[in-house]
Amino acid sequence: MHNSGFDINVPIGIVGVVLAWILLKDSPVKKIKNFDYLGFLSSALGIVAILYVLGEGSTIDWSDPKNAILMTTGILSLVFFVVNELTHENPLLDLRVLKIPEFSLSQGISCVLTFALMGGTYVLPLFLQNLRGYTPMETGLILFPSAIAVGFMMPVSGALFDRIGAKPVVLPGMALLGIASYLLVGKINMDASADSITWLLSIRGIGLGLAMMPISTAGMNAVPAILVSRASALSNTIRQISGALSITIMTTLIQNQLNFGYAYKAEQITPFNSMVGDNLSTILGIIQKDAYMEAMRHAIEVSIIAVVISSLMIFFMRDKRRSKTC
User: Fold this and answer.
1) How many whole angstroms separate alpha carbon 79 and alpha carbon 220?
2) What is the DSSP string of 219-235?
3) What is the CA radius of gyration of the chain?
4) How far apart are the first and last CA of the chain?
5) Prediction pTM value
6) Which residues are CB-contacts of 186 (< 8 A; sequence separation ≥ 6)?
7) Are residues 211 and 174 in contact, defined by beta-carbon separation less than 8 angstroms?
8) Which GO terms fall under molecular function for this chain's record (predicted)?
9) Which one-letter DSSP state was computed for residue 214?
């Protein structure tokens, strides 16, 4: 079935290509003496194989030889990739940058924070469209203010980071994110107003905007200038992988909790119950919806734990501000 929702990306992509052609300047071409073909192939094979299996979520059948072979192949490929990157003179991803403690810590915090982010950006659209019956456009309008809040607060947090360091900026952001996520759990029901959800998501956006930029900047500031390009490439790769894994984990959490909640509640209903009568299908539908909401609340609660873990990790960061001479 054709999904016209993806068509909006076509004109945006065309505009992006045209603007890039006009605005971006050519840089000198650098010849690569020894391209890391083995690293490229092993990383692609490992990541694709593992994400393919994990993408099945709670329906993974480990008795299926295909899944076992793919997972084993993926793990071995990534092990080979790590060994290759640590020994290659011109690695695809310079993993040696992870020896810098501050950079490694910032990447770990960002990964955990990415999972916490999914509590709103992944769960809420499912709830609003599948259970509350909002259209994609209406859902987008509900979520839009939170995106504006993130975009507005990022430069603000960057300026504050330059003045007072990372912790005084990130910790209040984490607090806002955790509190808003906690309150958001209570809005996963059929009675919560769209405005109340929008306000809580906006508060989450402010918290994310305060936290994300200083964490990333503090990590990059610890990297020597000669390694910044390699650290940036590694950071982007880790961010993409953590995002994909976060979605997979969140989907699995929701599906497992949904299955458990539905089975637990449905076993109380039988055709022989005099109160059921001819309404069995209607009652089971209500149970399904209630179990789905409970699963989404559970997923957001787990994301709150991720916020707490991220907050604790922040205390190990050094308040190294950006040098004014840079």
Assistant:
1) 26
2) HHHTS-GGGHHHHHHHH
3) 23
4) 53
5) 0.79
6) 192
7) yes
8) transmembrane transporter activity
9) H
